[in-house]
Fold:
Amino acid sequence: MKTLGLGVLGLSEGRSIISGARQSALWNVVALCDLNEQLGRERCAEFGIDPAMFTTSFDRLLANPAVEVVGIYTPDHLHAAHTIKALQAGKHVICTKPFLDNLSQARAVLDAARTADRRVMVGQSTRFFAPFARQREHFETGAFGELNTIEAYYNADHRWFLAKGWAKTDAFKWLYGGLSHPVDLVRWYLPDIEEVSGYSRLSENGKKLGLVHADTFHFIFKSAGGKIARVSGTYSSPVTPNQRDSNMSCILRGSLGASQGDYYELRYAWKTDNQSVVETFEDQDAHFFRFGGHSHHAGEYQNYIEHFARCLADGSVPKPDVAEGIVTVALMQAMEQSCLENRPVKVRDVLARHGLDDLIA
Ligand SMILES: NC(=O)c1ccc[n+]([C@@H]2O[C@H](COP(=O)([O-])OP(=O)(O)OC[C@H]3O[C@@H](n4cnc5c(N)ncnc54)[C@H](O)[C@@H]3O)[C@@H](O)[C@H]2O)c1
Structure:
């Protein structure tokens, strides 16, 4: 398979995709870009990359013909503009989550992808983490029968995140930054979520630390097919011990069994009438966590860029694609509206307000 040339924009979290690509036989890192020159120098030294490949100019990175795919790891509110610019330069795009933090530029992103005829994949990393990938593959065997309901949550003590300049501005919302993980997991199984209802609040810790928007969430979703699901998250306070709760989990309950994918301890547990099994993927610890601790995502990113490369080679669409990504953003915008207006909100109405209702049947 032909190797792909990767240009990375945003080198803080971008560190993980650089690591993923450097260890992949399917990718070559050919350009790096960040406004922060010092960080650029550090990343080149860390990965043994020629400093001439680093630039502070996104235009210069886009003008480089060796860059076939741009990986976007800038702050959330910049993803739309950076995605459009990369597409207009004829590049494929892998954009980290949240794909967008509102729908104001979604039509422009969609049109840019269609006009450029380039692929856009959203880097929903959790799908590519071993316990969740195994849960999906297992679900697809039919072992759990008819899916009844899903519970997905992501709780994290992310008080450290507020040191970042943009985290305490109006532009940053945990509803998109954090909940995009469990929301994406639910939509993976129930793509036709049509209505949402929920509550959010800004915790005392969040207020004290200067966070502008809510950091505590509980939501209920209803799908067009009548299934229901639950999504929750908290981001400014301690979490329970990992031995007791993984803090990022996805639980599927079906007619023949139930299963739970857990982030921490790389655990996957499932039960049917005849069997009760706990599987772990701790042997893959070194693949997933490369920079110390369990908070970096290099292995997930390597898995998703390899998925992207294989799709490009066989002509299939790497998922989640631009349309799926935009409908997930519409769902998050419906969640936000439900909290503001204290009522259930339909995803279709949110899409229609932005001229995007053609994205759902
Ligand atoms: N699991 C995951 O998929 C995951 C995990 C962590 C972060 N993220 C996402 O990664 C993105 C970045 O998060 P972060 O924690 O690295 O933020 P950060 O603020 O630490 O880093 C952003 C970087 O982008 C650079 N930058 C900003 N504007 C730029 C521009 N116009 N041109 C070039 N460089 C520019 C900044 O200098 C900075 O180095 C966010 O969208 C976040 O949600 C995803």
Remarks:
- The domain at 127-283+321-351 is CATH 3.30.360.10 (Dihydrodipicolinate Reductase; domain 2).
- Residues 322-341 form the longest helix (20 residues).
